[in-house]
Amino acid sequence: MESWSELPQILLNGIVHVLRSVAAFHSDRSSVEHHVHNGGCIEEFGAALEACHPDYIRQRGEVAGDAEACAKATAALHKCFAGNREWFRHQFICRLEEGLDQDLKPSPEQVKMEDETRFRWWTGMNRS
């Protein structure tokens, strides 16, 4: 920063970046939930989030989730997706598989970047 007069513009740019990230995240989350609901897998999706996603586990006051329940919920979600391949094959089955592969050895930088703009709904899910 060259002078204090630049501070308002720097702050404004930072606020705009944060607002865009939040909007992109909520837009992605809304899109995911809408698509899953229309494809008939919203119950399995909700159960997998409840059983596996760290945010939901923390909301319940637990330190760690039940790995077996998470694996079963993930399998049920995958089965539901597979049962409606026309609806889910292009994005959601691939996104789930790729996300689970990424999360085996997650890159902290990649997770942080994606968390700002995408709903990482597969976080915490695992294969049985």
Structure overview:
This protein has 128 residues and is mostly helical. 75% of the residues lie in helices and 0% in strands. The chain is built from 6 helices and no strands. It has helices spanning 7-38, 42-52, 54-59, 67-83, 85-104, 108-117. The longest helix has 32 residues, at 7-38. It is globular. It starts with 6 loop residues before the first helix and ends in an 11-residue tail after the last helix.
Specify the helix fraction band: over 70%
Radius of gyration: 18 Å
- Written as H for each helix and E for each strand, in order along the chain, the element string is HHHHHH
Shape: globular
* Strand composition percent: under 5%
Multimeric state of these chains? single chain
Terminal Cα span? 52 Å
Count of DSSP H/I helices: 6
The largest sheet is: none
Low-confidence stretches: none
Mean pLDDT across every amino acid position: 76
Task: Please state the structural category.
Answer: mainly alpha
Number of strands: 0
